[in-house]
Amino acid sequence: MRLYGERSFHAPDGASLFYRHWPATRDGSDEPRAIILLHRGHEHSGRMQHVVDELDMPGYAMFA
Q1: How far apart are CA 24 and CA 36, in angstroms?
Q2: In sequence order, which ranges of the chain are alpha helices (DSSP H)?
Q3: How confident is the prediction along the chain (64 residues), in pLDDT tens digits per residue?
Q4: Strand order in the sheet with 61-63
């Protein structure tokens, strides 16, 4: 299971937005890459863990 961090930021309208970040796990000189995972309104980013694990893309940071 890939480990994540919980973070938030303030949108231009002042709303605080929460997200989870799974950092890339592969070291190397590759350019940084990221995938943004979106979910429906009644879901939450914690339910995206299985997607991150199933994609198995260690060179990509994931955000949800």
Answers
A1: 13
A2: 49-55
A3: 999 999 999 999 999 999 999 999 876 667 889 999 998 888 889 889 999 999 999 999 999 9
A4: 5-10, 16-22, 61-63, 34-36
